[in-house]
Amino acid sequence: MKGSDDYSKAVSNHYKQLMEYCKINQERLDRELPPPREDLNELLAERGVSRRDFIKWTSIMTSALMLPPMFRPAVAKAAENFSRLPIVWLHFAECTGCSEALLRSSYPNVADILLETISLEYHETIMAAAGYQAEQNLEKAITDFKKKFVCVIEGALPRGLNGKYLTLGPKGKTGIQVAKEVTHKAAATICIGSCSAFGNIQAARPNPTDSAGISKVLGISTVNIAGCPPNAVNFVGTLLHYLMFGGMPPLDSLGRPIWAYGKRIHDFCERRPHYDAGEFVEEWGDDGAKKGWCLYNVGCKGPYTFANCSKVRFNDGVSWPVMAGHGCIGCTEPGFWDTMAPLEKPIHEASIGGGERTVDNIGLVLTGLTAAGVAAHAVASAIRHKGKDEEEKHD
Ligand code: FSX
Ligand code: SF4
Ligand code: F3S
After folding, report:
1. Cβ atoms of 124 and 182 closer than 8 Å
2. Which domain, by its residues, includes 334?
3. Which of 4, 98, 156, 247 is geometrically suited to a Cys-Cys bond with 229, CB 3.0 to 4.6 A?
């Protein structure tokens, strides 16, 4: 008993210290950040979100961020400060689906409303400025908010032709030049979407433009909000963490926040009981499909994919790919367009980290280890090596 008492005391002390750290950091941000652009409480009331709904949302976000309930007021404060954090948002080689997924919603929830308040000092898709004026806006933003703004990047960087497959603005700077100049002055860089994180579709074989993700091209550390497109909740949660602790959340070996990408799709999938019972869809439209059975045999890559889609879903929890009837294609993993998406069948023979692991014994590995986080990371790093090898092959 003494051992467990000591453990509880240690945990409670740890959280007390963390809370103290959070308070100091939030006071510092209160002094340093520009004044709020929006009053969140007024905006929520305008959009019909009650105080009660807001508190409920902050409780959900607190637990999603793996923090105990005592942090709920700090999450609420971070949300109120959301519009004070200057953001410079760059676009490189991509489809803009990430911005679309984040900035558009028919039924805005708190996360969507927060994204509306975001202080976008520069965002090529939605700002009115163009040409020289846009370039001046960018220069002004990165100078005025030097080391205070967060750089958010959508899209991969082409390295071919000395970077000239992608040039921007009236001076024809390459994406690589712009990315270097801006990330150098940023307090942190967040890669939103699998393109900026890992290269993604632009880096898929045969990769004619020699594209790759930001961290690989620039040799810097980035926080990777993977997904094609990623979930707004994962972006908002990461910024809330920044507004609480003044730094980015703990990351996995691929730069993805552990709170959002620490578990597999398969671990919380509503079709999982069918997987365990051996009930599989064998062909599109068959009886199993009508009954909502597991999509593994028609190519679901949920067992190989680390993300929280099956837990938080999309569009305010309305649905997610597997719920809509198609298997996961692994869009939060590096190289998925080459390794996972095209296969509408299981990767039985896939070698994952060492050559002999298949999806079935990954399951055994996970069952054998009690702490899911530890297990997930053991497998995550195995998959990472596989992903990296695949990435290297494309280079
Ligand atoms: Fe990539 Fe985002 Fe996929 Fe598209 O910009 S992650 S192609 S949804 O839009 O970068
Ligand atoms: Fe769900 Fe896919 Fe796993 Fe089946 S294989 S339980 S559909 S994640
Ligand atoms: Fe992507 Fe799979 Fe989620 S395809 S959106 S990681 S369910």
Report:
1. no
2. 262-394
3. 98
- pLDDT over 50 (residue 376): no
Give the domain-ending residue among 259, 274, 295.
259
Tell me, using a 6 A CB cutoff, whether residue 99 lines ligand 3.
no
pLDDT at res. 155: 97
Q: Mind listing the pLDDT tens digit for each residue in 328-363?
A: 999 999 999 999 998 888 887 454 443 344 444 444
Quote the ligand 3 centre to 40 CA distance (angstroms). Answer: 31
pLDDT score recorded for residue 240: 96
| H-run or E-run covering 88 | strand 86-91
- Ligand 2 atom at minimum distance from 272 CA: 6
Query: Are 105 and 239 in the same domain?
Result: yes
pLDDT value of residue 107: 56
Could you tell me the two tokens for 328? 């996961």
* Same domain? 53 vs 88: yes
Out of 259, 286, 302, pick the residue that ends a domain: 259
* Torsion angle, alpha carbons of 214, 219, 223, 225, to 10: 30
How many domains is the chain partitioned into structurally? 2
Ligand 1: list residues with CB < 6 Å.
94-98, 154-155, 193-195, 200-201, 228-229
How many Å lie between the centroid of ligand 1 and the Cα of residue 99? 8
Distance between CA 366 and CA 256 in Å, rounded?
20
pLDDT, residue 378, reads 31
Same domain membership, residue 97 and residue 181: yes
Reduce the secondary structure of 176-203 to three states and give it as a string: HHHHHHHHHHCCEEEEECHHHHHCHHHH
The alpha-helical segments, DSSP class H, found in the chain are 2-32, 40-46, 51-64, 72-80, 97-103, 110-117, 131-144, 175-185, 194-198, 214-218, 232-245, 258-261, 272-276, 287-290, 309-312, 321-324, 336-339, 359-368, 372-394
CB of 156 sitting under 6 A from ligand 3: no
| Candidate of 329, 336, 383 to mutate for ligand 3, largest count of ligand atoms within 8 Å of Cβ | 329
Question: Measured in angstroms, how far is the CA atom of residue 231 from the centroid of ligand 2?
Answer: 19
Task: Output the pLDDT for position 359.
Answer: 46
